[in-house]
Amino acid sequence: MLIIGSHVGYKKDSGLVGSVEEALSYGANTFMLYTGAPQNTIRSSINLDNVKKAYSLMKDNGIDKDNVIVHAPYIINLANGDLSKFNFSCNFLSEELKRVDTFGFKYLVLHPGSHVGLGVDVGISNIVKALNLVLDKDNSDVMILLETMAGKGSEVGRCFEEIKTIIDGVSKKGRIGVCLDTCHLNDAGYDLNNFNDILDLFDKIIGIDKIKCIHINDSKNILGSHKDRHENIGKGTIGLDTLIKIIDCDKLKDVPKILETPYIDGHAPYKEEISLIRSLSKQ
Ligand code: FE
Ligand code: FE
Ligand code: ZN
């Protein structure tokens, strides 16, 4: 069965119930949320009664909690060695893991970070240090999914080798997985027309079983542009056929697919995009 959804809002008042209702309004059977605004770290406390209601709503509508994804805010940057920023990011990530665990979800997607001019090697060693510090103190079984990045600015994680080096440095390897993002892969220079070859490459370098989430986005920019601007499904340089091939890839059939495509004239495009995908997918 195709496991597909989009990112949805999470508001203080409606809480997780509101997120589930939004996902259901798109015809989704999973979703991804930020526990607050993606750009900031203001977080309200979690209402457990609301979470309970959300779970019964999910159960009634066939949403498996193990397919739900949380995305950490962009403001976390584990690659920055500046002590106050480094500590802030580590603390926030620890808190975020606790929130994901309180929700009862399994996966937290994280951008590895930007080395801000320190160089990739220093950036990676900062990320490794941070992940070890955070995971050392955290006894949940929430898995951190490192997202493959477009290589915009000084982003780390723009190729499978960089992600692999990070995983190699982490002690609790079972707590680390990977989130592929189709727009980011295209912009990083991976030609998704040859998706099977790319998946084989990923398997050789990291191992396909580490892939726990896929962000399905088209791209506004050409292969290798290092831009990271998402486009609506079928309207970008990746194209509908290729995206459907990725969605239908048998080896990834149990992996949740999440849309992060842009709003059109202030409206979420997810209902239409999900039904378009369902009409073309063989899953
Ligand atoms: Fe992301
Ligand atoms: Fe993404
Ligand atoms: Zn992106």
TrEMBL record:
Cofactor note: Binds 3 Zn(2+) ions.
Domain of life: Bacteria
Binding sites annotated in the UniProt record for Zn(2+) 3: 184, 228, 230
GO molecular-function term, one example from the UniProt record: DNA binding
Family membership noted in the UniProt record: Belongs to the AP endonuclease 2 family.
PANTHER family per UniProt: APURINIC-APYRIMIDINIC ENDONUCLEASE, ENDONUCLEASE IV ENDODEOXYRIBONUCLEASE IV
NCBIfam families: nfo, PRK01060.1-1
The protein, known as: Probable endonuclease 4
